[in-house]
Amino acid sequence: MSPAQVTPALASSERDRDGRLVGLAFDSTPPLEAPDANPWLVAVDSSENALRAVACAAGQAAGMSACALHLVHVQPWLSREAAEAELAHRALGATARARATLDARGLPWRLHVAMGDPAERILEQAVRLHTTSIVIGSRGLNAVESLLFGSVAYKVMHLSRLPVMVVP
Angle of helix 96-104 relative to helix 80-94, nearest 10 degrees? Predict the structure, then answer.
């Protein structure tokens, strides 16, 4: 079985004050010791743009003596029942190729799964994890589409106090 086919170990789960599941964290497969220094947040979903962001971050991290990669995946809000039954399954499915990219390079990672507005959750996780930078893929929206629909990368880039690398 390849590492991408192995279900990663659940490292932690987070519940709100009402007991609703709102977040999960999984460790790399097989578990690899990640350095404490220079943590990066890499926003991931199932898109090709996110995969390019992961590949870019992996290339940069491989050239450093210490860099921890925190993958962050955000799902829309799910009902209590759906979160319990599907949050992990949806997140692991959407991030399988990104995780496999890092596994193939022997880079340790931790996947953080949250629900809500993607830009808000990415920025919250960056603060919570004390990351030094954020890497995110661009959806490739033109100016009009960005104005009408918004862009997660645009919002993160303009609201973050950290350096943000937007990968086309």
Answer: 40
Structural domains present in the chain: 3-167 (3.40.50.620)
**Residue among 87, 66, 59, 84 nearest 75 (CA):** 87
pLDDT tens sequence across 38-97: 899 999 999 999 999 999 999 988 877 667 899 999 999 999 999 999 999 999 999 999
CA distances from 68 to 42, 59, 92, 108, 150 (A): 10, 13, 20, 7, 29
**Res 29: pLDDT:** 74
For the chain, the first-to-last Cα distance in angstroms comes to 32
Which of 39, 18, 76, 2 lies closest to 162, judged by CA?
39
CB atoms under 10 Å from CB of 61, counted, come to 22
For the entire predicted model, the pTM comes to: 0.89
